[in-house]
């Protein structure tokens, strides 16, 4: 189950400063920071930037930070940000065009020069990145800028030591232990000590790990790390039964339950903004005052807006019920047909950040049970 | 059937510069543009595919190809919004951007040996025109051909001169119907499906190519099923909001399909369940 034990080391918390510094020599290092009452992802340079000793309390429609009784660096579940904002930026110039004597000249944006290191990527987030890879990189047409950012990113995963009540990754088989897609994976050990078990997942990760002050992992360290994610999985109180769910949701298109959800849904789009797999974008075109130069800018969009489905004469999805149905059905049903995977990784963000506390797990379960009742 | 278009190495989001070489007003609100690349060769197209046409600073719209010459793409555009308005006002010599061609094609190769029924409603004749031209250019490969056209009123008939030329073919049945007649119209009045019984085709060996408003396509497909045309040989061209045309923006989803890459031409048997859901 484990890779070559030589690649598994135990680090003191201070060694993470060496990790950050080594990565910062060539990359923009991004990690969790405490800001505006939430744990968000931003540039970090020092170990002190991490939210040591903080945790979060999450429920449907609720998010609060609270102090912990220890100095854990990663003692919280996921917050409103995801790594999507760096790999698929919320706003991005697609091209600039200029009218010349010979006609139009199209200039692509300059190639991205920054390369990223992500510190603290959770298993569900690795799964979300893998889902976006399928959508944005592996189809007949690739978003080449996304693919380049993705290719160059160095990923330090963190296996979760705490589960929020909104977490359901264990039922989605996406966590809480990182399975693949990382350069280094850390497990924070807080069993009367404060250390990190570190596993390399790539050659680059192995090389970097070898340069950090560390000691070899003992069988006891490995068992302690395993217990962390086993306990986190066991602590999860939400679970989505995905068996046959795509077909059941597809068959439920005309079920009255969508109308019932629509009475609570504000169609605000928060769920799509915090979702780490939602990839929909729109474009806007601008000119300068001379109108000689124009620019096309892509930005995140949401299927909850009326504009999203606008076709000359009106929008296809006029009702909130139709828009909620589109979102939920896409996540849990049509996504499978399109990309061979669900569009949901069980991170629970859409539940926490819904202003009216609509619970994707509860709604999908209600529709499943309604379908079962029908058949 | 979906095939990646030849995308420039500058990325799938960056248009290629084109120029209007001819602009012709078809109807009060509808214009046909012939457009040619500023430099280089014209990409190959298949009947039924579309391009993304870009007006600097205004935006980009998905427009079906209504034909092509050796040197130019032909697009017939109705003024229904800000971008199509700007496109219909481009004079000869004006610059625009183009990405494409994109999307699936009318199955003109797969339908060889069969009777072919072409049903067009309004501007839906434009995306069907390359298929009609192909069928007539290879007339010997097909069985009986029928072209059924519906328009709102007589002045709204698209390509009246070309329809007259098509009518001159003795082995092509052409019928035209109006939603509302005027004093000068002495032909059929009523919706397009009412013309179906007048066309001569063997339902078991017929392929139908349909393009028009969605309600018209649904009604026509239903009528054809009632006449025992197999659902898998009924083909519709669908339209949805589209921003990227390459399956990345999410806007054109129709059930599990992306209209941009799984369509616009789709088999009825594959989309019938989705067509039956309101506001999908």
Automatic annotation (TrEMBL), chain A:
Domain 4Fe-4S ferredoxin-type: 254-286, 335-363
GO MF annotation: an example: iron-sulfur cluster binding
Keyword Iron-sulfur appears in the UniProt entry: yes
Record flagged with keyword Nucleotide-binding: no
This protein's UniProt keywords: Iron, Iron-sulfur, Metal-binding
Superkingdom classification of source: Bacteria
Database matches in PANTHER family: ANAEROBIC SULFITE REDUCTASE SUBUNIT A
Protein name: Ferredoxin
Organism per entry: Acidocella aromatica
